[in-house]
Amino acid sequence: MSPDTATSIKKPEDGRLPSFTFYNYFRSSAAYRVRIAFNFKGVKPARIVDLDIRQGEQKAAILGDVIPHGLVPAFSWDGGFLTQSIAMIEWLDTLTPQMPRLVPVDPQEASHAREIALAVACDIHPLNNLRVLNYLGHWLDISEDARLHWYRHWIEEGFAGVERILRLRRAGGPFALGSQPTLADVCLVPQVFNARRFDVPLSTFPTIVEVADRCEAMEASRKASPEAAA
Ligand SMILES: N[C@@H](CCC(=O)N[C@@H](CS)C(=O)NCC(=O)O)C(=O)O
């Protein structure tokens, strides 16, 4: 695809999932969200391309206009592409009828699922992305210890809000918003995984830990974990 073909990007025909390629990195928590969604929805991409973001391979792909924003995850299909894990999960969910509905059909419940998902995807994850950590280190000369402090701080700050929201919203569980896992759980599992990986104390976030652990124990999540995807 080149800029002058951008206007002819094709929509998936007849509202069904096309045969598509998934651009992945095993440790990317945004890709981990999408992998969990694949398993819940019983979807298998036709092709998986693993890109090592530590080596900048996701940027090399911009050259082919495959991943215009230079980040994983992304989808591409004949004549089209989609980026942003939340949009990608909604796309999968909309084009596959299987349960669970990751974005609930009820508009109010859907907004609550997006609320938690976006608290993770917009308010926590971007601050701790590899390019931000690299920028802090390479350009601002911030030490590794201070970067670790930064990393933990933004998870703790973000989780404090999510914990309060979950306590107010939960109607008895067992998942973040009720009896089925939703986009909210799908986003919490990788973020809790990252928190543990960087030794963020989680004792003040019992609701987050409870719902994330419940979803993480499900086969759909286990098969999507960085260990399983490596
Ligand atoms: N908002 C994007 C975030 C994508 C993103 O930041 N991906 C990370 C991996 S989790 C990445 O490609 N990082 C490469 C870098 O930081 O250079 C989404 O949800 O898909």
Reconstruct the topology from this structure.
Blueprint (H helix, E strand, L loop, with lengths): L19 E5 L4 H13 L5 E4 L6 H4 L13 E4 L2 E4 L1 H11 L11 H17 L6 H9 L5 H26 L13 H15 L8 H11 L2 H4 L3 H4 L1
Helix pairs in contact: 1-3, 1-7, 4-6, 4-7, 7-8
Bound molecules: glutathione.
The site of glutathione (GSH) has 15 residues, from helix 1, helix 3 and helix 5.
Notes on the protein architecture:
The protein contains 10 helices and 4 strands; from the N terminus they run βαβαββαααααααα. It folds into 2 domains: 3-95, Glutaredoxin (3-Layer(aba) Sandwich); 107-229, Glutathione S-transferase Yfyf (Class Pi), Chain A, domain 2 (Up-down Bundle), CATH 1.20.1050. The two termini are 30 Å apart. α4 packs antiparallel against α6 and α7 (183-197) crosses α8 (206-216). β1, α1 (29-41) and β2 (47-50) form a beta-alpha-beta unit. The longest helix is centred in the C-terminal third of the chain and has 26 residues, at 144-169. The chain has 230 residues and is α+β, with helices and mostly antiparallel strands. The chain has a 4-stranded mixed β-sheet with strand order 2-1-3-4, with helices on one face. It has helices at 29-41, 57-60, 85-95, 107-123, 130-138, 144-169, 183-197, 206-216, 219-222, 226-229, and strands at 20-24, 47-50, 74-77, 80-83. Residues 1-9 have low confidence and may be disordered. Glutathione is lined by residues 28-30, 53, 58, 71-73, 84-86, 121, 129-131.
